Amino acid sequence: MTLVIQGCNFFVTYVLLRKFLFSPTVKAIYQEQSEHNALIATIQSGKTKIEAKQQEKRQRWQECQQFFVQTAPPAERAEVFVFEDKEWVAPLEPIQDNLVKQLTNEVEQAVIKKVVDVH
Predict the structure, then answer these.
(1) Is residue 70 within a helix (H) or strand (E), and if so which, with residue range?
(2) At what angle do helices 23-71 and 97-118 cross, to 10 degrees?
(3) Predicted TM-score of the model (pTM)
(4) Is residue 20 pLDDT above 60, yes or no?
């Protein structure tokens, strides 16, 4: 008889613990796990966006470099000659003022266009 009563007590205790303790605890663990997974997904998404922006910046930088190389005015390097411990620099050909103004305007427009595209 005592064994039957102990079995009933054990069963009732098991049911109460399962319903009021274990079930909410398991739900809380699953909810925390899902929040953790959502946070990791958000972080991965952010990293992907950052990488895409960095790639876009690298591409624009390369485009700017190519543009400036292509539109640079023709200028030859000055050669340095040494005569008796004195340096002499060969003079460069003068650049026409209208060419300088034209190139300045082109560069200014290109920079403005790039800056407007960034925002």
Answers:
(1) helix 23-71
(2) 170
(3) 0.45
(4) yes
**pLDDT in the model for residue 116:** 80
Residue type (1 letter), 27: K
Return d(Cα 95, Cα 77) in angstroms, integer: 14
Q: Which residues contact 19 (CB under 8 A, 6 or more apart)?
A: none
CA 33 to chain centre: 28
Q: How far apart (Å, rounded) are the C-alpha atoms in residues 112 and 106?
A: 10
Rounded distance between C-alpha atoms, residue 75 and residue 96, angstroms: 12
φ/ψ of 53, rounded to 5, equals -65, -40
Burial zone of 34 (CB within 10 Å; 0-12 exposed, 13-18 middle, 19+ buried): exposed
Give domain limits for the chain. 2-118
